[in-house]
Amino acid sequence: MAKTILYIDGENIKNYIKTVLKNEGIKTKNLNIENFDLSSLLKKPLKGLQISEKRYYSARLRYYKETPKKSKQNIKNSE
Question: Among 40, 33, 43, 39, which residue's Cα sits nearest to residue 12?
């Protein structure tokens, strides 16, 4: 039987949640996004899939002198 592994990009999902909340008029400044229950959040979209493993990963954003504008934008968006 095939294994299905779900990889969750922590930085992207955190930023997406912030964007959705902001668009709904919910202030995120005092919210701790890291405490969101991802299993509940993903339950409906993943209904019917047999997930054998869930792997969450996150990377700290860095400033790259080769792409200063994009680096600053990404870092600002993650705050």
Answer: 33
Longest dimension (CA), the chain: 47
Radius of gyration of the chain (CA): 16
Residue 28, Cβ density class (10 Å: 0-12 exposed, 13-18 middle, ≥19 buried): middle
pLDDT-flagged residues of the chain (< 70): 1, 78-79
At 78 the pLDDT is 66
In this predicted structure, what is the pLDDT of residue 23?
93
Beta-ladder partners of 56: 8
Cβ-contact 16, 66 below 8 angstroms: no
pLDDT at 25: 93
What pairs with residue 5 in β-bridges? 53
